[in-house]
Amino acid sequence: MSLQKAKRIIKNGKEFLGTPYVFGAESGRTDRFDCSSFVQYVYGAHGIILPRTSRQQYLIGKSVPLTSVRRGDLLFFTTPKRARYKGIHKIGHVAIFIGNNSILHTSRVEKKVAIASLEPYWRKKLIGARRVVDTPL
Question: Residues 30, 32, 8, 44: is their CA dihedral positive or negative?
C-alpha cells in the first residue's frame, strides 16, 4: 500500500472518532458503525470495495505476516464469543492498523470509533492481517 493512500484512509477514518458503535450497523450509514461497516465505509470512500462482515473481509487481499504489518493494513481479531470456533469462524473483529502499535476501529470495548493500543488487550486476540490496497481483490 502506498504510504500516501494509507495516510488518506487513516485521516478519513479519524474524522469519525467518537461515532457510536452499534452491532449490526447498516452499510453506508455514518451516524453509527460496527467494526466491519466502519472498515467497509472508510475503504470504500477510497475506491476499495470490501464485503460487509469481518469474516468476509478476511478473505480479501493478501495475507501479511504480523511482523510485516504496515499502516493501512487490516488486523483481524477473535472475540470471547468467537474464540471457540476454528478457522475463519474464529474472526469476530476487524480494525485498521495506524502505526505506533495502534489501531483505528469501533468495538464493544470502546463503544465508539476510537484509537486503541494493541497492548495488552487487542494483542492477545490478534489472529491475522490482510493488505487490501495495491493487491488484486
Answer: negative
